[in-house]
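Quick question about two entries, pasted in order.
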Amino acid sequence: AHNVCRLLTRRAHGFYARDAGVAHRKNLGLLRKIICQESTKFKNVWTTHSASPIAYERGRIYLDNYQCCISSIAQEPRILYQKPKCSKSEKIEDALLLECPLGEMLPSPSDYKSSLIVLTVQNWLLRLSADSGEILEKIYLAGSCCKFRYLSWDTPQEVMVVKSAQNKLPAAARQVSIQQSVLFYLAVFQVLPLSFIGMLEINKKIFGNSVTDVAISNGILIVMYSMGLVRLYNFQAILEQFMEQPLDLGREFNWNGQVGVVGKYPFGLPCNIKITDTPPLLFEASSLENAFQIGGYPWHYIITPNKKKHKGIFHICSLKDNALAKNGIQDMKCCSLEPDWIYFHPDMSGRIIHVGPNLIKVLKLKEVKDNTDQMEIAEDFTIVANRENCVNNAVTVTASGRVVKKRFNLLDDDPEQETFKIVDYEDELDLLSTVAVTQIGADGKAHLDFHCNEHGILLKSIPLLESWDVTYSHEVYFDKDLVLHIEQKPNRRFSCYIYQMVCDTAKDDECSSHEKTERVFCKKGGRIFEY
């Protein structure tokens, strides 16, 4: 009864009926079956257009720089809140959705509801209610010495990182040989309750002159260099070695002779992590365009050799000893305008997804026979684009018998051939989703397909009704019973199309396209007009 493996197996089989997770897993299993059955359709129920970027987070659509929030969960999307138009000084640079952790006691009732962390152009970090837009917390980061611009997760829903833009001296200062040694600032916070861990500088006197970017992820400080070098450092070890003093938000403090309240204007947050020497190096690798990923079991990493001629060639190596895995060089040898891409599967299975114009490979790591110390890359399954009608002969014969030779061959991602554009994973339903596009002339047709994540079998195909232009930027979200397509057109024109799962009835089939509700977002008044 106390065997952990046996308890986990019994729980997965549903033996513990009082466990809330059992009911949730059963419901998601039912939803998956309903979505994938032939009679289920996805109907375009709502469309909106905007002159500003459109963002989507967990059933909420944000318009007009997060001033308008629309719920997409209801049968017809509805406005949750709409705030007055903000000035340029209040513009939001980035945002993260913050959700309540399970099984923890929190100091405020508002902490148990979803909230939105936003970063403004004036270095304010705000926590807003996700349902009303009300400001719950305000933190002032710093003065004009640096411009914070990016939000990211170190540990999702636990530790957040606020990163500045790269510090660059004005041209006049460079002409008189003024030196700028600090390249980036990073502020790190624990969330819910929101607390300050520390702020650090990335100084070229410590890390070198050629630093181009920096990030903190999963407890690792990642530093990238212009020559393609990537270096990893233990961030927890940096905290323990170089933190001068821990600080609490809202406490009055004297820092270098300046008295103020931590996180309040104009004091902001002091830089309390001073790296005075190069931290111990965990790992380094050289890769084209700093492309570097870690994953799999046992740990492996993926790089592209640091030469332009190797673009599109990926090496999968052991993190333990840098040994190249057997069959660890992956090269699709595709001739296309857009390169293929590769990444570790987000389902934590340790598999690898390699996406080309007309082929998706799902790869797995397994032990080499007769050599348990080495791993090899094996093919788990493949998904192939539908190009049955595609003929690309170099020589053709006309009806009159004249032989015509082509001077060039079609590219692998030629718009007139079905090409994969997006591959994603829906973790709650355990489905692998793909978007494939075919464009003939100005009219592009796209469809969203759902595949079994374990075997790659096609379970469902959903046609997207709007025309898809391959030259535009596109995002597609599949969230349980909702499909959302965001399109960015030239001249900062944005469109959002929402599809919802519906029962396939004769009445639905008879509905004409003019009966659908279309809403156009007008930026001037910040209002939504329906017609």
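Here is the second entry:
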Amino acid sequence: MSLDCGRKPEYPSESGGDAGAMQHQVLFVLAADQLRLGAREHVLLVFAKEDSQSDAFWWACDRAGFRCNIARTPESAVECFLDNHHEIIVIDGRHSRYFEPEAICRMIRATKHSENTVILAVVPQKLPDQEEPSVLPLLCAGFSRRFVENSSVSACYNELIQIEHGEVRCQFKLRACNSVFTALEHCQEAVEITSEDHIIQYVNPAFERMMGYYRGELIGKELTELPKSDKNRADLLDTINTCIKKGKEWQGIYFARKKSGDNIQQQVKILPVIGQGGKIRHFVAIKRANTDNNNQVFKINKEDRCSVDHTQSECHSLRHRDRRKDSIDARSVGSRGSDAPSLQNRRYSSVARIHSMTIEAPITKVINIINAAQESSPVTVAEALDRVLEILRTTELYSPQLASKEDDPHTSDLVGGLMSDGLRRLSGNEYVFSKNMSQSQLAIPVTLKDVPPSIAEMLNDEERWEFNILDLEAATHKRPLTYLGLKIFTSFGVCDFLNCSEATLRSWLQLMEANYHSSNSYHNSTHAADVLHATAYFLRKERVKSSLDQLDEVAALIAATVHDVDHPGRTNSFLCNAGSELAILYNDTAVLESHHAALAFQLTIHDSKSNIFKNIDRNQFRTLRQAIIDMVLATEMTRHFEHVSKFVNSINKPMAAIEETSMS
């Protein structure tokens, strides 16, 4: 132990120095020896003057085996703390004429290393008729607890031991978290930690490399907000949630969608973490890209898992086994050992491969190898490999491309259209204009009541013409159509008119939004949401409202939502000149508008979960369908002025007739 100044205090006599007292002191010392930890605590005593109280704490530290420093001034206290990083600090708060204890506490708390330090305030004893003072000012100043003045070494010793066994040990655990996170940061498996409500709280660098997101883009988001792959079976998410909510692990093959839009097959292990109250507080997902040359798989504890029963792949049943607490079979998260796999590993690896077996072309194998290489690559290399994958996933590997579009973008677009068929193909010869997109790729919809407060506050102004759709785009992470559509369709009673549930409407809105190209700078879902807002604004005007019935309003809102769905970012003239398949299909007449209307109905009736028309009668559907088609086709710019003139006449003539009647 060391003192900044002053002599070593004499051991105080607490009971007159009799034999009984000495015997108790010996017992205390023996007890202290038994309670000492391998790494002894470091205590700082801040007392302006030496007195019986400071001596008692000094000897209490000696008895407990704690290292101790004594500081006499605020400056020396801070300097000593910065040098030694004490676990416990005791500050004398009895005499404010020497220094302000709250000021010293704030100075220490302002330093970088004080977050795990327990600071104790020594307060004077209250008079018999004095009211017990509040501890709130001390807590606000940064103190952890208080100690009422007592110069008994035993009392000081007991206080220090309680702190050491309580707050200090808790702080040790918190400090150990830094080591855990260091391990996670260098782990080669992708790790994702979410709350009990499936809100992302942590992802490691391996996850960033695998999925293409930066950590700041994910923290605080719900898993439902991230795009889903369309390669998983429809009930897989429900199956996983059912399993992990029971406190069981889930492990199996899962397809995820990267930020770039590409699908990646993963071996996923999800572990529920039991916390306070015996309830599930977090979920930890460990993910690894599933490739042919990836022979290392997770070991599965036969009695501690919930995995896909591959022998019954048609019904995709799951096996739920009880948790076995006395064994740990999971391989270390950071392990990359090259030991020969066990029989169980080989068996599971074979079954997993059978489950995920597909007919692969050589280019697919190349892509899988690059995906595997991304896992252990630096961020810059991983980003470059993402670009390589984007190029490889097209079938235009040997088609010429213009080197630069900066000089004359219009000429470049025209020449580029003549060099290709106007449509960018994906691997597997699937055009961008995909007519088979299923709803399983979409995020699980949220209810209007569950909309985040910041977005809900924005939507409160949607009836105003000044409503900023770009702010909504940023707040919803480029999903404004779903949120705005829910609000507007609800206010117009669309669900009641169509006799459909809100869940069906939400699914339909998300399906439509997913089929807008976010890569388009203008014809994207934000543009659709903007047109929907303007349409709703005009429909609320009294002169327009009096001329339309509810079917017309519903048709207008639906048409506004779908009027540019799957827009390729090119004009009708471009597609016709390029000889695209769409132009040929629709005979060079209203090519895009016909495609928007046709695809909207194809997508809607394809899946019952998103079919908003399934409950209306046939005649009403035919009338509504024709109205929607007419409105979408009317967005062709070559007939713009014709339609505007007809619309103005349809509004003005009835109003003029009413005015003439009233005047006569």
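Reply: The first strand starts at residue 42 and ends at 46. The CA atoms of residues 212 and 563 lie 31 Å apart. Hope that helps.
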